Automatic annotation (TrEMBL):
Transmembrane stretches, start-end: 6-25
Assigned keywords, A-Z: Membrane, Plastid, Transmembrane, Transmembrane helix
Name of this chain's protein: Cytochrome b6-f complex subunit VI
Lineage: Eukaryota, Rhodophyta, Bangiophyceae, Porphyridiales, Porphyridiaceae
Amino acid sequence: MSVLFGYILCLVISLAIPVTFFFGLKTIKLI
């Protein structure tokens, strides 16, 4: 269970980083 949780956490983080970066760039362009 804990291994599965760690795997999901890694997956979420690896997806969240490019998404945050992308939205950050869009926000900078809007300003």
